[in-house]
Structure formats: C-alpha cells, structure tokens
Amino acid sequence: MTSQDSTSADLAPAADQAQASDVAQATADVPVVEFRTEPSEYRHWRLDVDGPVATLTMDVDEAGGLVPGYELKLNSYDLGVDIELYDAVQRLRFEHPEVRAVVMTSGKEKIFCAGANIRMLAASPHPWKVNFCKFTNETRNGIEDATAHSGQTWLAAVNGTASGGGYELALACEHIMLIDDRSSVVSLPELPLLGVLPGTGGLTRVTDKRHVRRDVADYFSTRAEGIGGKKAVAWRLVDEAVPRARWQEAVAERAAELAGRSARPAGANGIELTPLQKSRTGEEICYRYVTARLDRDRGVAEITVSGPDADPPGDVAALHDQGAAFWTLAVTRELDDLILDLRTNELELGTWLLRTRGDASRVLAHDRLLLSHRDDWLASEIVHYLKRTLKRLDVTSRSLIALIEPGSCFAGSLLELALAADRSFQLFGVFEDVDPSAEPATVTIGEMNLGPLPMGNGLTRLQTRFYGDEAGLAAVDKRAGEALEAQDAQQLGLVTFAPDDIDWDEEVRIAVEERASFSPDALTGLEANYRFAGPETLETKVFGRLTAWQNWIFYRPNASGPDGALRRYGTGRRADFDRKRV
Amino acid sequence: MTSQDSTSADLAPAADQAQASDVAQATADVPVVEFRTEPSEYRHWRLDVDGPVATLTMDVDEAGGLVPGYELKLNSYDLGVDIELYDAVQRLRFEHPEVRAVVMTSGKEKIFCAGANIRMLAASPHPWKVNFCKFTNETRNGIEDATAHSGQTWLAAVNGTASGGGYELALACEHIMLIDDRSSVVSLPELPLLGVLPGTGGLTRVTDKRHVRRDVADYFSTRAEGIGGKKAVAWRLVDEAVPRARWQEAVAERAAELAGRSARPAGANGIELTPLQKSRTGEEICYRYVTARLDRDRGVAEITVSGPDADPPGDVAALHDQGAAFWTLAVTRELDDLILDLRTNELELGTWLLRTRGDASRVLAHDRLLLSHRDDWLASEIVHYLKRTLKRLDVTSRSLIALIEPGSCFAGSLLELALAADRSFQLFGVFEDVDPSAEPATVTIGEMNLGPLPMGNGLTRLQTRFYGDEAGLAAVDKRAGEALEAQDAQQLGLVTFAPDDIDWDEEVRIAVEERASFSPDALTGLEANYRFAGPETLETKVFGRLTAWQNWIFYRPNASGPDGALRRYGTGRRADFDRKRV
Q1: Which of A253, A520, B200, B224 would you call most buried, defined as having the most Cβ atoms within 10 angstroms of its Cβ?
Q2: Does the distance separating the beta carbons of B541 and A536 come in below 8 Å?
Q3: Which of A218, A531, A577 sits opposite B530 (nearest CB)?
Q4: Alpha-carbon distance B162 to B183, whole Å?
C-alpha cells in the first residue's frame, strides 16, 4: 500500500465519501471469489521460464481489479493480483522442477510495485482488509518456503520504485537488487501517508530477516520518500544497487549464481497441476476428496476429507506418473482451495467441523511412500505443500472442531487436521443405531506427525500440544503406529473429549451452539493465542504480533474513520487524528 | 474481569446507557492519578509480615473505587487497587529482605478475586482500559520477577473463587493452592461473559507457563462456570486442591517450604522506601533527579535525568546506609513514577524527549559499586528494579527520542535510556553560541549495558539493537569504557544521527513535529514491533501478541459498542454480535 495515487497525474482529486461507499458496496456484493487460475488466464503477471531461471514479471492491468471501484495504477495490487502470484509460486514448484532461481521484476517503467491499492483498502470492509492481508502474507511465506526448501531461490530485481507492499514483496525474496538510477527507491510509507502499518510482514522482516537496526528502521518507516542507491545498501534495505547500464547483465549474473547453489536434480520433469474439479452451490462445495456442507443457520461448515480409495503406487516413478492425481497432492490442493474459498466468501460460517472418511492404513501408506522418498523432488514438494496448507488452517480465524467417528481415517497426515483443531471429539464405542457392528473410531500417530509438518512456530502440532509436558509427549510418541480408540486417545491427551453414543449428539451440538453464541472477535483472539503455545518465529510474529496490531490500527477511526488517514489519502486534506496515545 | 455482578444479589438490574456515560465522563474528568502510596494508606490490601513469610490479603473496599460510578464488589479491582498491590510488591523487596515467601490470599468469604471491575471497564474510554491492562500486566510480571530473582516466592492461596483477572493474579504466582470446598473454582469467563480476552496474560500463562494443553485451555476459557477441585489439578490449572479443614495448615506448610528454598541472607535489614518528593503542575513534574517539562502545544514531554552529584559511597555498607537516597535507587524510583504518571495522565504528550545531565564517570562508578556486589541483596534489588523500570519504558506507547548534548551523562545505566529510544541524536561538536569551550557530548558503554538489564525478550538493548549483526555488536563491545563522541558513536551504530550545531535545532524540531503529525495508533504499532526484534518470551508474547489482540477486541463494537457484550453485561440482555469472522 503506498503512493500510487499521489504520483499519478490523472488521479481524481478527491476520494469522496460517495465513491468510497460505492466500492464498499461493491465488495459486499462481489460474487464468490475464485482462487483457481492458471498462467494462460493471468492478467497481471507473465511467467517466463528459461532453463534454470524463471522470470515473473508484474505488469498489472489497471482495469483488472477484482471488484469495481478502483484502478490498479502503478503496479498496485488487489486480491486478484495476488491470487495469480500464488498460482505462479505453486506452479513453479510443481511444474518447473528445472527452475532453480526465480527473478521477480516489473514490466512497468520506473515502478516496481506500489503495494496494495489504497482506494481498494480504504473502501473495503474490515474483514476483507484483514483476510486480504492474511492471504498475501501466506503467499510471501510461500516464496520464502520455496527458497528454503525447494532450491528455488527468489531474487527481487527491483527495476523501479518499490513502495509499501511493493517493498514487502521484495523483502520476501532472498536477495534484493535495486536499480540505481537516482529515482528508484524502496519505502514503507504506510505510516506517514496512510496512518496504518505495512500489512505483509514488512516491519518484522526489516529487523528480524534483514537485520536493519531498529532506529534506522524507525526512521525509514516514517519517511514517505524512501531510500535508494548506496544508502539503501548501507542500511541493509537491499543487497545491491546496480546502475541501469549494468542492470540486465547484473540480474542475469546474480540469478545464474543463485541457481548454481541449488541442489535441484538435473533433468527432472514437472507434473501438471491440472484444473481442480469443483462444484459450488450455496449449500455445498464439492471436490473429488473434499466436501463442505454450508449450514448457514448454525454458522457451520461441515467439512469431510476422504482418504485414498486405493493403495499408493509401488514406487516413486509411479507417483510421478499419477502426478496431480496422487491422493496426497490432490487432497491437499482441494483443502487449500476450500480453506481460501470459505475464508474469503463465507465470513459467517464461524465454526468448521472437520471429519475424515476412509481407510487409515491407506493414508499411512501414502505418507510412507512420500517420506521414504524425501530426496525425490516431487515427494518433497507434496509434503511441503501439505505443511503450508496445514499452516493456513492454523491461522484461519474460524473455530475448528474435529469429529472422530467410526469410518474415519485420522491417521498420519490426516490426524494433523484433528491436531490443528481447537478441540476434538472421538466417539467412544460406535453409533448403535447406525451400525452396531462398525469398528470403533481410532486415531493413529504416523511419521507425518513427528516432524515433516511443522507449524509456523517451528514445532510439530504434537510438540505444541504437549508444550512443556515432555512426559506427555514421550508417552504419545511411544504409541506411534497404534490405532488408538477413544479412551486411550483421550487418556494420552490426543483428543479432548470421548463421549459415547448416548452423549455424542448432545455434546457436539452444545459445543457448536456455544461457539456460535460467543463474540466472533474474542474467539479469533483466543484461538490465535492458544494455537501457538511456545516459541515464536518470524512467521508467528507476522501473524501474531504484527497482524494483531495492524487489525487494531485498521479498525481505529484514525485510519478508517471518515476523517482517518486511509480515507483522506489522495483528497488533499490531512487526516484529523485523535491525538491520544493508547 | 468477571462475574462479580452476576452473583451479586443487590446489583442494579441494568447498566443503562446513561450510567455508562456518567462513568466515562468521570474517567475523563478524573484528577491526576497518583501512584505513590504506602501500606498505612492502603484501602484494599493488608500486608502482614511474620518472619520469612508475608501474607498479602486482598480485601477490596467496595466504596474505594478510583473513579466514581462503580462499586468494587466481590474483590474486583480497578487501577487504584492495583497501585496498592504494586506498592506492596516493591516494599516487600526493599523493606523486607527477611521475607522469603509471600502468600497472596483474600479477606472475603468464598471469593478470592473477581478480576477487573466490569462496570469500570465497560464505561472506561479505550486508552484507559489499555493503559490499565498494561500496568496490571507489569505488576504481575513484577511478582514473577520477585520469585525468580529476589528469593521471594509468591504463593496464591486461593481461598474462594478466582475468576478472570482474579485467576490471572494467581497465575502470576509460582504455586497455586485452591480451596476444595465444592464451590470455589478458577475461571477465565471473559470470552463467554464479556466478549473480550483475559487482559493480564492469562491465555499466555495458561499454555506457556502452566503447560495446560491447548484444547483443554480452549474449553476452560469458554466455560463461564470455571473448574475446581481435583479436575483443576488434573488440568494443571492449579497445583493443589486442599480441603477447608486442612487449608490454614497446608498453606502455612507450603509457604514455609517455599521460604526454605530461598537463598536470601539471614538477618538482613530492609531499607525504607521513604516518600518520594514530587511537585506537579500543569507544566512540569519535578523530582530530585528527574524533571519533565510538559509541552502541550508540541505534544512533548521533555524529560531530563540528572546523574549523581557525588561519588558513590566507598562500600556496600555505606550503600545500605544511604538506602533510598542512593542515587541509582532514587533516580529509578523517580523515573518509574514519572513513566506511570505520564502514561496515565498525559495521553496527548505523544513524544518523550530524553536528556541526561551530569558526570558520566559518577554514573559509571555507581554502576560499578552495584555490579561488584550482586551478591548483596540490596545492590541486586536496585539493579533488578532498574531493569523493570527500563522494561516499562520499552512497552510505553510514546515515541522516545534521546537527545545527547554536551553536559549529558549517557553512560552505563543512563545509556540504556538512549538505547531504549526509537531514535537518538548526538551533537557533533558543541553548541558554539552556548558554550564553545564545552566538552563535546559522549556516550559510554559500561558493564550495565552488557547483561544486567535485559529487555523482555531476554536480550540486552545492545543485543536487540544489533540483532543478527554479530560483527556490529562485537565492534561495539570492544569500545566499552570509552567516551565516544558523536562521529564514533554514529559509525558504531550506537546513535541514529549526529548533526552539528548548525543543523541540530532544525533536525530535532523536524523529528518532533513529524512525530506529532503521524497517526498515534500507527506509531504505537510501529514502536511495539520495532522495539522487540528477535526472540519472543512469555513476557513479550503478553505485551505483543496478546495485548494487541485484546486492544482490537476491546475496540470492536462486539465488545464495546452499545450492543456489545461488555456493555450489555449484567443487563439481562444478550449482546448483539456482528457474526462475521475477521
């Protein structure tokens, strides 16, 4: 978010009240936002792959806003632009294993990216702003994850001014090159211009990733004008400043160098992320393995995840042949899309009930195939993708309740759903009047629960659950591989409650109704705190500390009120602040 | 904050709008809040010392509210109650070195403490609520600090129900005993009853200190009724549940046991925390070593801290003789009181300018005396008190700018003021037209900067400043003991700017004016993030993550709006929530 408008000559002089509410209305009436896309449909980015180096060029279509009411000037972005970026990050990892460095650059003259579109932000309802920031944060974390775990190192080739969210995009890259042309700068002008904070991790990354000194960072973030050239290098804001004459050559050199460090295998063939099959009505969202029933009366989404309906292929070559059809990848893509869909489109479904259905041994067999081939790039990518998708669940502002019933398959990778939940119910015994001869529900700890799928805090969900209780964790670890029935699972602390047939309906109903009766805001705060016991990392600091401050600031009249900085921006009138420090 | 009203028979049926605004008005018109007190003035607590065990009994005077408009029923508290608690914590450390265990208990029947008073909270302006929570958090951290560093272990003898902030008080203690009488419970009913979060670290301490499992914690925090007896022990909410018949005996036993673990010296004599001399007008607050000029036009408090005007006493016995008059202790008490006064009473003074005046070598000599006697209880207490007071500065929502001028003494302990600041200016050369023959300003790193005064994140201010820059930190450490002039200090990264005589006034003026022109909310968020680079601890999680969420929740209409849960509480009408999840 930044100065795209102030530097734009043809800008309407005032974002008057009427215009602002038009946009607000528009976002309220916006049709369901769809996250599925593919490169041929991109309006804002170009993805060019040239052997080991890919170039992702941001060239935002001004008229391509997701919602009517604003123009995406100066490579500013909205959710639609970021959906394409996310798609590109994903495709690079799965479809282009040959790529070892990704250059992110701009297709515009003199401007790299002006950050999130201010008109869009100023006019958006509070939940839209917050959800938008969450998704953009996740995408930037995904860029860092690709650098750290995929041997695809991202390089920001900042060939013009990068302000606000534009600079934050660069901050997500491993290496930042800034063109040294006496006009291009990097900046975080949110505070001086808009009265808010940078929304996508800028403050945390400046100090904790790039190690900019805190007083320098303070000064930098209060200077709307930004910093360029050698000073930007000296202050650690960028890694190098390169004159225009040497720019192309220098970027190519650096990209080649970064690509050279990658441990990606030679000659690997990508798999195609085929279009995700999905049907959506007002009552239901259905994919191949995942369905969600939308119960608006109760404010509930009932999500059911199906396990694999066949054994996994016998070897890793066959896994490659299955590609996007391989169960773990397929189900992860579906879950990912569902989480994004529900978060964006279904704000009043405050509780998600998580069920599974299928054969636990097949889930565990799929897990084993993946984990016994972590050196295979595709197996590795699938596990990291599952990890990222589960992290998305961790930062989802919905109450998560796992229901573990007969016929379910909460084992290994799918057990993580129950461990991500705020609470869980496992049926003791069976439903006598449904199927008295059914096998009782079980949960099984697998290898996937013991390391490969860490949360943002760096711990596994089991480690977080038993934070500070070494004995409890050890007792649970010892039972890995066993199908644990309700009583055992509850005693071990793997599930919260284990009601029997007689109490089940009533207990679950009360839990769901209670949840719906509480303040949604307080629930969001409670969950955001309890889900992250123990240590903090850059990632949890962004989602916890920084996001919470930003939410508060966004909501205060000093930013979003009619006389607030965000609403007054571009009108020529200064914000009228309540000067009391809180 | 909790159910004091719902269980109170003589409660007026509805907190109607009129009443609420009366209180709001009252807090707006409240006279300057004074933090100085002493046990003979307590209205709400009794402090009894019996050899190695002190008992602090909470017996809140219903009619003793700091502000008119509410009654402090059921041992609920407001800022005035907490000011006395803070005073008691301090006096125990300085005046009662013989005390090795502190029992906190209640003087009421069946109720330990009902938490923060809800009427007060519901009617208080937003800044008051937030500032109140900050101070109460600091006091609870002080209780933990006494347990960790003073050999004064706090024991919560919960002899009745402890709800909300009442349970959070117990959580600050090292050991929690709950009376097992079938009616006394501990609870965090804020979310179900009030639509807010526990305000004094409850969520963080439940998981990160007491290691309650996150799903159990979730359930506990959504149950207004609370948990008692053996279940409270099994869930780790308390350490023991003791039948009424054995209560007195068991508490005494446990207190004696905790006291027995203390390494406090035998036969030590306390020093008296003599009344702090202070004068206060609308323009100035003056103590012996600290003054603050209140410049309301510029929104600035100009704070000047004077160094010692004599050499320190020759040995630790003489330090004891000086007692509260010993410079470091005196100046720390003054700073502490000033920070609290300005934070509470002067919300519109958004920038604090920090100056020092005096002889740097005397500051360093006082530091040395203290640090060469860390095994002396009093020397140790003084250093820990200075540490806590500097931490108070770190979480103060004001812009801090250090001005390092000729005649100043930013050395060792006082250099921490500059290192705590968001930015600092050190004059290069001297003020030619003031005193051309003056010595140029210097800063000196002393032993105090290298470990004894950690921030809440567990790092020193220097380590935080150079977080991730090992070389920079090493370069600075090497210069310890040198009086560094502006150019050196800036090159080393110890100060932000080093303007000369010609630029000084202009640069400082612009910095101050700019700060006053920005959104106060955004500045608070920026500072709260940049001041805590690097790792997080329980303490920083409470002030960063949890406080920010709570601020947001407090501010949302779902809590504080006319139909919000906080305002509707006790009226018999349910809150009317906006059900959208954000």
Answers
A1: B200
A2: yes
A3: A218
A4: 11
